[in-house]
């Protein structure tokens, strides 16, 4: 019976608008890229279950370090990829909806999910080209009282600049720290948020390019 | 190579398991093209490795989905095969959600889709660069629209 359902189900995906490039989807899932592009991709997820399940996996990868070798730890990924058959996702998608609908109000309550809140998010686009004399990194995330540590390295992970206990989510990397890099070099940077409640949240590694 | 294989194992769907080695090779090619795997320098950061592995896997899935002779077998069933009734219901609801979301404004589509994918309102606000208030408003309105549409379709009693 399930095989009979796969055909119509997958045929449905044939009318989905063209999908964004995979890299753009990944970047949007990590809050990167221009705002309009992120909005367009998020709206695309509503129509494209395949991209939606890919998005879920991207989020899962973001939340979990690559510590566990392939094996039992793959179960979550497998389940997520199983959703790629699209309609399938409806089971998971509708469950929370049903819970909300049962509450009977005219406005569905918004459900907040704690994990992820406060995690640093880059405020500059991936691979932004920044001038050597004004290499300003910006990010957001974290409640008032959050302190941030910043680590900047070159593409080979050689440390270039570090700053700790920052009270503002921005930092200008001194030109001296970038002196050894040629124009066009990729710079990696990562932020560690120290929240007032004691939690420490580490960001993705972001990229910028030296003008 | 071991790190690449691990990254591929994390990102590769089971349906592509038999192509894992090929995908790993594609990952290495992309790393080489990007200058991040020249063999002489430091290895690429894990986050970057995962990104490349993930994009290669997604591209491969898309490529296979354009080949109808393989796509039906490629994707695993999301619902237990022994439960056809549930599968039918799942498909019906999934189709209804997709149809209903297509009728709401794009900004509401975006917030509802992200909520359905498990994001909280603050996360959506951060992802889309919106204020919390705007996001909360759009999320509530979007869910209301979706609920009304599903009720009209008789999907949600």
Structural class of chain A: alpha+beta
Q: How far apart, in Å, are the first and last alpha carbons of chain A?
A: 58 Å
**Approximately how much helix is present in the residues of chain B?**
over 70%
Mean pLDDT of chain B: 77
Binned, the helix content of chain A reads 25-40%
Question: Could you spell the SSE succession of chain B in H and E letters?
Answer: HHHHHHHH
Strand content of chain A: 15-25%
Structure in words:
The complex is a heterodimer of chains A (211) and B (157). Chain A is of the alpha+beta class. Chain A has six helices and nine strands. In chain A, strands 2, 4, 5, 7, 8 and 9 form a six-stranded mixed sheet that branches. Chain A has a three-stranded antiparallel sheet with strand order 1-3-6, with no helix packed on it. In chain A, helix 2 packs across helix 3. The N terminus of chain A is likely disordered. Chain B is built from eight helices and no strands. In chain B, helix 7 packs across helix 8. In chain B, 45% of the residues are buried. About 10% of the residues of chain B have low confidence. Chains A and B meet through helix 1, helix 2, helix 3, helix 4 and helix 5 of A and helix 1, helix 3, helix 5, helix 6 and helix 7 of B.
